[in-house]
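Field reference: sequence -> structure
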Amino acid sequence: MTHYVPEGLPDRIRHFIDGEFVDSVGGETFDVLDPVSNETYVQAAAGQQADIDLAVAAARRAFTDGPWPRMLPRQRSRVLHRVADLVESRDARLAELETFDTGLPITQALGQAQRAAENFRFFADLIVAQRDDTYKVPGRQVNYVNRKPIGVAGLITPWNTPFMLESWKLAPALATGNTVVLKPAEFTPLSASLWAEIFREAGVPNGVFNLVNGLGEEAGDALVKHPDVPLISFTGESRTGQIIFGNAAPFLKGLSMELGGKSPAVVFADADLDAALDATVFGVFSLNGERCTAGSRILVERSIYDDFVARYAERARSIVVGDPHDPATEVGALVHPEHYDKVMRYVEIGKAEARLVAGGGRPEGLEQGNYVAPTVFADVAPDARIFQEEIFGPVVAITPFDTDEEALELANNTRYGLAAYIWTNNLKRAHNFAQSVEAGMVWLNSNNVRDLRTPFGGVKASGLGHEGGYRSIDFYTDQQAVHITLNEAHSPRFGASPVE
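Structure field:
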């Protein structure tokens, strides 16, 4: 298979601090691989404490002395709309680079680039339309909420859909008047470097956006522990989230963390089976299975179980795996050989735990690159590792159930609680099940279709806090209560009577 390499790749990837592209202070770098050849295609600057210090200092100056936090919401909104216009106008190039860097199929990468533009448009509109509470006690008092940006926000983003997930954090952080230091995932730094030119062209002042590449243990760790960064928004693994929680504790930082998932898709016998099949196949194999909200555990009512498993396996075997740049590709290459090895270890674990009905190895004809055939395990026991642990690849576990109560017990039987998908035409069951399932987000008779106004986040080991819509505005602002007395303040008169 010929290996597609985009034209115009950078000769190196650098940090962006205070409006300038710079190397690491100490000259440190790390290799960046492309997931089809697994060869190093570029060196990226590896941020250390000194680089984070420079970026935070620039962001701090831009916050305390610069115009950005003091702009009218409409002014910031215009800049963010220009960002969205620029992202939209470059969506094909963004998708091409994202696909090369991540292994995501090109059609899906293009959709992610367009969603990134929509995220900026949404928060550009929301910040102008935003309203805050006012309370009146007639004749006595008026109380109102004064919302203020907090300062420097540290944003740490994952490698699975990097550009889009960066936009989810950048847009509300900037819309509310904060300045930012972004630390993108070390596996996929290519598309993040494009934000610098986009923001510069859109009119974002120097120092408002800063980018430090590097390893989580070095650059990410320094950002979390920096005393001048009061906010950390992180998307990634639950274990990393626990470390960040501990490191942020001495500073009492604001934390928003969207972590791992092992989300159930529950299919009842009365569901529209064709629609459920489409959604559950897409729900675990789109984005190469590297998605936090993947419906990676499918629970199926026993009366339709055998038929469902057979049809599901047939669909999985027919999925087009191949060159990420080919528009016909449905599953591309996993992001990195380390991650490929992890997923393949789980495939081998699954073979010992359950019945393999599709996939189970490398697809034929794809000897090079991080390719995994879409893999389906049936009859998976609730205590199996492939039922309990996040695999984050094109691997799915299917388990039967007999009653609604058993389905709910199985759905809730993991440490995670990010998303849940429920397929039934029984209205009462749908709502009762949705309200009982331990998940931050539930989709009824639907795949993962996001409304940007709704909260995004998980329960249990799947996260802390929520972003999305007004929840993002809440996270990136301080809400100050201001109280005004309208008549005499009737205070108790301590000390008014002289002591004899």
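Note: The longest helix spans residues 106-129.
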